[in-house]
Amino acid sequence: LKEMNARSVWHPMAHPADCQANPPTIVTGAQGVRITDVDGHEVVDGVGGLWNVNLGFSCQPIKDAITAQLDRLPYYSIFRGTTNDAVIQLAEELRDFFEPDGLSRAFFTSGGSDSVETSLRLARQYHKIRGEAGRVKFLSLKKGYHGTHFGGASVNGNANFRTAYEPLLAGCHHIPAPYTYRNPFNETDPERLAQLCLSALEDEIAFQGANTIAAFIMEPVLGAGGVIPPHESFMPGVRDICSRHGILLIADEVITAFGRTGSWSGSRHWGVQPDMMCTAKAITNGYFPFGAVMIAEQVAQVFESDETGRAAIGHGYTYSGHPVGAAAAIACLAETIRLDVPTNAAARGAQLHDGFKSLMEKYDLIGDVRGGEGMMTAMELVSDRSSKTPIDKATIGKIQEETYRAGAMVRVSGPNIILSPPLILSEDEASIILSALDAGFASVS
Ligand code: PMP
Predict the structure, then answer these.
(1) Is the CB of 147 under 6 A from ligand 1?
(2) Strand, coil or helix: what is 130?
(3) Which pLDDT tens digit goes with each residue over 59-87?
(4) Among 107, 113, 304, 411, which one is least packed by beta carbons within 10 Å?
(5) Which keywords are on file for this protein (predicted)?
(6) Residue 69: which region, alpha, beta or left (left: phi > 0; alpha: psi -120 to 50)?
(7) 213-263, pLDDT tens digit by residue?
């Protein structure tokens, strides 16, 4: 398998030479919150698949729903003249679930990048239909991650994900993220930093001209960029600015929806109602590629207002509303609610965050610890705390490897070690992750 992998599989986001030098772990099985590799090694999955397996790998109701749906109706499209009963039921349930977020309609997709693309396209259409065709630009946060389609890549805040694909969508601008450890203002107070970032947003809008901007897209807690939760004043501030300038607010909740932040959605966590919300990942617990863009009633109504609106959409996927994905999502939503996953996410998230802080007291390599808003936590590693020089790849790689050997899979993203375990993680399992990390750090200290 290792040899075949090296010669045949092109790994996403990885340089082929890095894959050769550092072959990936070949996962062959998973149960509960544990994964097993090809060598028979079993570890606690601190990554939760890829931030998506919120309910663990043994979710029988989802498995049953998928097999029953496969027996009954394995596929039928929802393009124009047809639909399927599974997707209708799901849309109704999502409508109830996201009612407190002010979102009533679901546009179905096949994953996170599709959801982002859909939201950007709908945002442009929305303004065009309303007679504001000049509103075409998008604003987003530096360090934000919004997937890999050309639209999503254009709003990605990390230049590494953009430069190879330029020229990208014109008119995308990125404003400083409320990232206390490193920011252009040298501001370490989260509340003051939030205000500075909001002023930067206002300045950018004034510079571009509000009537040229379609939407602002943001993750309620920046995920892949290194788990950066903003001060509580930030997202409400963004909501206010967008409303004042007629700019749509798109919440990219591909990671944060369905409990990860310790609330049912990231927007609800900060008390904000977005105009659109991108979801995917945990919507099926990773069991089926699926996503939904949830849309506010007032936005949906614009599309339904006249013939122009209806004719203008021209967007959708063969797998929009796939019945097997819908069946998986219905069962997943029911389990997510039954298990009240945000409560455990908040408790175990706090345990992991406290554990990170203790490790920071012990190891100088840890420059910053972030998260604690539910079960997404990160530590940023530096070779020197005062200069904040990012850690080298070899050292962080060794820590990851030794942590794995000691019993836990953790994610490395640049200089960050990130945790996003299944939200059903127990106290003992959280402790296993922390002691494995301790062993990982001990190996390089
Ligand atoms: N948006 C966010 C916030 C994400 O974290 C991701 C994936 N990590 C995406 C979009 C893209 O999702 P996908 O990989 O399913 O296309």
Answers:
(1) yes
(2) coil
(3) 999 999 999 999 999 999 998 889 999 99
(4) 304
(5) Aminotransferase, Pyridoxal phosphate, Transferase
(6) alpha
(7) 999 999 999 999 999 999 999 999 999 999 999 999 999 999 999 999 999
